[in-house]
Amino acid sequence: MTLQWTVVALFLYVEIALILILCVPFISARRWTLVFSWRLWSWLSAYWNRAFFTMIVVLVVLFLDAVREVQRYSGPQETQDAKVNPNLFDNLHMKLFRAQRNLYISGFSLFLWLVTHRVVNLLNQVAVSTETGAGLRAQMENASRAAKQYQEDNLLLRQALLNEEKSTAAENQHLKRDAEKLAEELKAAEDAMHRSHAEVEAMKRQTKGLTQEYDRLLREHHQLQNLQIAPEDKKTH
Questions:
Q1: Separation of CA 162 from chain center
Q2: In the prediction, which pLDDT does 51 show?
Q3: pLDDT in tens, 68-89
C-alpha cells in the first residue's frame, strides 16, 4: 500500500472511531456542545470550512482515481491478455484487488467524512433544542405556577368578598334592628312627651283654677273681715 492510501486508510479508521465515540449513548448532546465550545475549536473554526471542503476534494479525487483503476484492470483487453499469460493473470487480479480496496477506502472515507460533519451539526442542533426546550419548559412551569397562584389569590379574594358581604349583610341587619329599636324608643319618647305636655297643661289649668279659687276665697276673707270690723266701730261710737 502506497503512502497516500495508507494515510487515507488511517483517516478512515479515525473517522470510524470518531463516529463510534459520537454515537455513544451515555454522552449527551449537551456534553458534546461543551466539548465543541473549547477554545481550541474556536481557534480552529476559522479554518474548519476550508479544511472540510479541501478534504472532500482530495477524497473525491482519490475516489475517482480508484474508479479509474478499477475500470482499467477490469477491462476486456486486460482480461484477454491475462488469460494468455498465467503470471499476468495473477498480477492483474492483485492490481484489481488493490484498486477495489482503494475504491472502498476512499468511498467510505468520503461518506464518513460527510456523516461526521452531519452528526456534529445534529449534536449542536440537539443541544440547542434541548436548552431551548428546557428554557421553554421552565417558562411554562413558571407560567403554570403564576396561573395557579393567581387562581388561589382569586379564590381567596372571592372568599374575602363573600365574607365581607356576609358581614356587611349581618351588620346592616343589626343596624336595621337598632334603627327599628331607636324608632320605637323615639315613638315612645314622643308619646311620653305628649303625655307630659298634656299633664303640664292639666296642671296649668288646675293651678289657674286653684289661683282663681284662692283669690275668691281671699276676697271673701277680706269682705268678712271688713264686715266684722264695721260693727265693732259702731259699738265704739
A1: 29
A2: 80
A3: 888 877 766 555 555 555 566 6
Grid cell 434541548 in the structure block, residue: 130
Q: Which residues contact 102 (CB under 8 A, 6 or more apart)?
A: 5, 8, 62, 65, 66, 69
Closest CA to 78 of 102, 100, 64, 95: 95
Per-residue pLDDT, 29: 66
Domain borders along the chain are 3-138
